[in-house]
Amino acid sequence: MASIDSVLQEHRVFPPSAETIARAAISGMAAYEALCKEAETDYAGYWARLAREHLLWKKPFTQSLDESNAPFYKWFEDGTLNVSFNCLDRNLENGNADKVALIFEADDGKVTRTTYRELHSLVCKFANGLKSRGIKKGDRVIIYMPMSVEGVAAMQACARIGATHSVVFGGFSAKSVQERVVDAGATAVITADEQCRGGKNIALKAVVDEAIAMGGCEAIHSVVVYKRTGNAIGMSAGRDVWLHDLLEGQSATCEPEWVGAEHPLFLLYTSGSTGKPKGVQHSSAGYLLHAILTNKWTFDLKPEDVYWCTADIGWVTGHTYIAYGPLACGATQIVFEGVPTYPDAGRFWRVIQDQKVSVFYTAPTAIRSLIKAAETTATAHPRNYDLTSLRLLGTVGEPINPEAWMWYYEQIGGSRCPVMDTFWQTETGGHVITPLPGVTPLVPGSCTLPFPGIAAAVVDESGHDVEWGKGGFLVIKRPWPSMIRTIWGDPERYRNSYFPGDLGGKLYLAGDGAVRDAKTGYFTIMGRIDDVLNVSGHRMGTMEIESALVSCTELVAEAAVVGRPDDLTGEAICAFVVLKGPRPTGDAAKAIVKKLQDWVAKEIGPIAKPKDIRFGDNLPKTRSGKIMRRLLRSLAKGEEITQDVSTLENPAILEQLKQSV
Ligand code: PRX
């Protein structure tokens, strides 16, 4: 933990403006403290009150938290509700029917608007269509869709009939799709012919076909295909159906399937410390409650806002802050199909200007790459755009360095908009440590304080609190409504990964290092403590990439993957590879690097491509054969090796790996 102790010294503080405090749902520090106090005094009662106030129940619950089978916690268990009803029907009943729910901006700039009434009708037809294919409550449905109104509608339609969806990011490979279909035991896939990104058409349906052909997917009886580009694709008679054909003649109303509060709304696969991605299972009521609360409290969403979260629906951010939370709050939001750099790096700023976006939520990597673009291309500079509609900014996914924070605050927010550095994870369902706009004085690089009711803390190896100012493991001490319920099909992995015995078995271990400021208690996240990398805000397991590399059996004998800091992407993937043949040099080495990068892209997806690949005759190992990753990490960074190498079996290998850049 010594390295964790060396926290950035940051002295700039930005208190909330009087205007922000006045408009905020949680107004002033005293209001925040009162909520924290309420949670402390009556934990279950606090969440029960919020669940009654913010969710529409078909049958009210009588018990708030059930801890009897810890760590398999249950919230509001005997209540019933429907998530899609909470997101859509609620808005038909409260005067928002003709309000625009989704402003869709396509890759080519074409804009379409969908009102709550229209979205409700699309979702109902979609839900009826799924039912007509025999898809029902409890079935698992894989969604492999582009950013689109139909993508959001697919998720909502599953929720409406009680089917559990698992969205797979459109950049993942056929192999990744196949693994998820098999692990989830899915019976249907919803996809599109192609997706459009940065002026290019990218296959989706063909990838699904390839995935199914890999075997193990025999349970898939339906593949629903949204026609995005209209280019030719194969359709398998009986199994495949066009979405427009499925919707044809369906009723525009669909009685929601009322499900228990704990009914699994979705699974979302994410990387852990082993080669196999884990299917994080979320509930219905607890999850939706936190999605609503964080949209209302962290983003302070108001009826007049135009809200834009730039995440993809393939990630958890696109679930909580696009597909569910904002809709349940009746927001008008942007759904953006394209990429930040197409047709030029001013795209984000142009969308904000043209659509008068007031709340903008994006990732530090995007900010860093747009800073670079603004420095090199005058036309990409945000000063060319009118960004005065903005009132609040947010970031998520990785630590934001104070320089990027300041640029975001000054250049994008005009030194007027508070920046919410929201810390959370796929497993937490929504923000767990975050500033609140009308409450928290901001410090660049710190995600500040826990969301009211979240018992976040920093502890040592045995689970004891560490003093403020000292680094340790980030934990959450009490279960909260939107927490992960289990890992699909692997409850033991859930228990071992998140509630390890070393820490006493009761603390939720986030997997990040953190430190609290000695004076303010503000949290700063120091990055992952396990074998998980964060590349451009995307979680990648080193073991997953290693297994992909060694599965190239024609070439690779052994591989070890580590991360190294990268100015743009936060971390970059660095692979050390031992080939079956002789160690290549020069052009031969370059050719193999390219081959292996393409291999990993095909096995997992382009986001997992190692940036650096180095070849050695061996890897640095202890006498017992364990790879010494800390040495590889130093080599990847280009650091001098100052660590103890006396346990190393083959010290000469370090010199070879050092030179093999
Ligand atoms: O390491 C932390 C980092 O992202 C991880 C969670 O990744 P994922 O489950 O893919 O969810 C990303 C979107 C919620 C965390 O364990 N992380 C996320 N937000 C922040 C962060 N690190 C620092 N500051 C943040 N605000």
UniProtKB/TrEMBL annotation:
<feature type="modified residue" description="N6-acetyllysine">
    <location>
        <position position="626"/>
    </location>
</feature>
<dbReference type="InterPro" id="IPR011904">
    <property type="entry name" value="Ac_CoA_lig"/>
</dbReference>
<protein>
    <recommendedName>
        <fullName>Acetyl-coenzyme A synthetase</fullName>
        <ecNumber>6.2.1.1</ecNumber>
    </recommendedName>
</protein>
<dbReference type="Pfam" id="PF00501">
    <property type="entry name" value="AMP-binding"/>
</dbReference>
<feature type="binding site">
    <location>
        <position position="539"/>
    </location>
    <ligand>
        <name>ATP</name>
    </ligand>
</feature>
<keyword id="KW-0547">Nucleotide-binding</keyword>
<feature type="binding site">
    <location>
        <position position="528"/>
    </location>
    <ligand>
        <name>ATP</name>
    </ligand>
</feature>
<feature type="domain" description="AMP-binding enzyme C-terminal">
    <location>
        <begin position="544"/>
        <end position="626"/>
    </location>
</feature>
<dbReference type="InterPro" id="IPR025110">
    <property type="entry name" value="AMP-bd_C"/>
</dbReference>
<dbReference type="InterPro" id="IPR000873">
    <property type="entry name" value="AMP-dep_synth/lig_dom"/>
</dbReference>
<dbReference type="InterPro" id="IPR042099">
    <property type="entry name" value="ANL_N_sf"/>
</dbReference>
<feature type="binding site">
    <location>
        <position position="317"/>
    </location>
    <ligand>
        <name>CoA</name>
    </ligand>
</feature>
<keyword id="KW-0436">Ligase</keyword>
<dbReference type="InterPro" id="IPR032387">
    <property type="entry name" value="ACAS_N"/>
</dbReference>
<dbReference type="GO" id="GO:0003987">
    <property type="term" value="F:acetate-CoA ligase activity"/>
</dbReference>
<dbReference type="Pfam" id="PF13193">
    <property type="entry name" value="AMP-binding_C"/>
</dbReference>
<feature type="binding site">
    <location>
        <position position="536"/>
    </location>
    <ligand>
        <name>CoA</name>
    </ligand>
</feature>
<feature type="binding site">
    <location>
        <position position="550"/>
    </location>
    <ligand>
        <name>Mg(2+)</name>
    </ligand>
</feature>
<dbReference type="Pfam" id="PF16177">
    <property type="entry name" value="ACAS_N"/>
</dbReference>
<feature type="binding site">
    <location>
        <position position="556"/>
    </location>
    <ligand>
        <name>Mg(2+)</name>
    </ligand>
</feature>
<feature type="binding site">
    <location>
        <begin position="197"/>
        <end position="200"/>
    </location>
    <ligand>
        <name>CoA</name>
    </ligand>
</feature>
<keyword id="KW-0479">Metal-binding</keyword>
<keyword id="KW-0067">ATP-binding</keyword>
<comment type="function">
    <text>Catalyzes the conversion of acetate into acetyl-CoA (AcCoA), an essential intermediate at the junction of anabolic and catabolic pathways. AcsA undergoes a two-step reaction. In the first half reaction, AcsA combines acetate with ATP to form acetyl-adenylate (AcAMP) intermediate. In the second half reaction, it can then transfer the acetyl group from AcAMP to the sulfhydryl group of CoA, forming the product AcCoA.</text>
</comment>
<keyword id="KW-0460">Magnesium</keyword>
<keyword id="KW-0007">Acetylation</keyword>
<feature type="domain" description="Acetyl-coenzyme A synthetase N-terminal">
    <location>
        <begin position="32"/>
        <end position="87"/>
    </location>
</feature>
<feature type="domain" description="AMP-dependent synthetase/ligase">
    <location>
        <begin position="95"/>
        <end position="480"/>
    </location>
</feature>
<dbReference type="InterPro" id="IPR045851">
    <property type="entry name" value="AMP-bd_C_sf"/>
</dbReference>
<feature type="binding site">
    <location>
        <begin position="421"/>
        <end position="426"/>
    </location>
    <ligand>
        <name>ATP</name>
    </ligand>
</feature>
<feature type="binding site">
    <location>
        <begin position="397"/>
        <end position="399"/>
    </location>
    <ligand>
        <name>ATP</name>
    </ligand>
</feature>
<feature type="binding site">
    <location>
        <position position="512"/>
    </location>
    <ligand>
        <name>ATP</name>
    </ligand>
</feature>
<comment type="similarity">
    <text>Belongs to the ATP-dependent AMP-binding enzyme family.</text>
</comment>
<dbReference type="InterPro" id="IPR020845">
    <property type="entry name" value="AMP-binding_CS"/>
</dbReference>
